[in-house]
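Methods, example record. To illustrate the input and output format used throughout this study, we show the complete record for Carbohydrate ABC transporter membrane protein 1, CUT1 family. The sequence lines were provided to the predictor; the line carrying C-alpha cells was produced by it.
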Amino acid sequence: MTTTMTAPASSPARVEQPPRRRRRRTRLPHLLLIPAVGTLLIGLGYPVTWQILNSFKEYGLAQQFGQPAEYVGFANYIALFTDGMFWTIALRSVAFMAATAAVTMVIGIAFALLMKVIPTWSRIVLQVAMLLAWAMPIVAQMTVANWLIDDRNGVLNHVLSLIPGVDLIGHDWLIDPLSFFGVALVIITWASVPFVAFSVYAGLTQVSEEVLEAGQLDGASAFQMLRLIIMPIIRPVLVILILLQLIWDLRVFAQIQLLQDFGAAGERYDLLGTYIYGLGIGQGQFGAAAAAAMVVMILTLAVSWGYVRRLLKEDEES
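The corresponding predicted structure is encoded as:
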C-alpha cells in the first residue's frame, strides 16, 4: 500500500514594493507668482482699502480742502439701505444686467454656430466685421449711436418713417426710460456679441467630428445634437462667458453716462454705475459713494461665487 505524499503549497514569493519617493515640491511656481500678486496688491489693494475706510467716514467736499474726515460707523450704509431710490436703481441694474447678458449670449452663440457652417470667405468677412465692432472705442460707438437715433436728423427715425402710417420724425428715443434702456441694451449688446461669438466658435472647433458623426448615425436631429452633445461639451466656455457678461453688464457706466449727456437726465435713467458717480462727483458725498461701491463689489462677488466654488471643487477632485 503506497501513500501519496503531497507537498505543501509553497507561498508565493513576496514582491517587495519599491519605496515611494516623496514628490519634491519646488518653490519655483510660487516664486514666479510673487510679481503678479505684488502688482495686484499694489494696484487694487490701496484703492479698495481707501474705499472701505471712507465708506465708514463722513467724507465730502470739506475733506477735499483739508478738514479731517469724521468716523460715522455704519451711518453711510444705513442711509443707503433705507433709501428707496437706491433699491429701485439696484433692482433696475440687476434686471438690465440679466436682460443684456441673456441677449448677448443668445446672439453670440447664434453667430458662432453660423460661422461654423458658412463658407470660408463669408466667415472671414463676418469675423472681420465683428472684430471691427469689438475694437471700436466706446466714445466712437456712442457718437455713431447718437447720429443714428438723433430726434432731428437721425437715420433710424428717417428709415422707420418710410413705413406707411409711421411718422417718427422728431421722436426722441432717450426721453422715455424704457426706450432709453432699450437703446443702451442694443449698444452694449452690439459691442459685446463679438467676444462671445469668437469664444464660442473657438469652443466649437474643439468638438470632435467623430462624436458628431456618431450622433448622426444614432438618428439625432440637428437640435438634439446641439442640445445634448455640443452644448455639454462647450459648457465650461459658456459658464465663464455668462459670468463675465453678468459682471460687465452690472458695472456698465460709460454708455449710460454718455446717453444721459446726449439728452436724458435724472434718477429714472440711472444704473448703479452712474448713481455712484452722481453721489461722489456730482454731489460730493464721497463716503456714501464709497459705501455704494462696496455694495456693488459684494454683488459682483455674489454673482461670481458660484463659478469660483465650482472651480475649487474641480481642483479638489483632480
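Annotations derived from this record:
The CA atoms of residues 92 and 271 lie 7 Å apart.
Residues 84-117 form the longest helix (34 residues).
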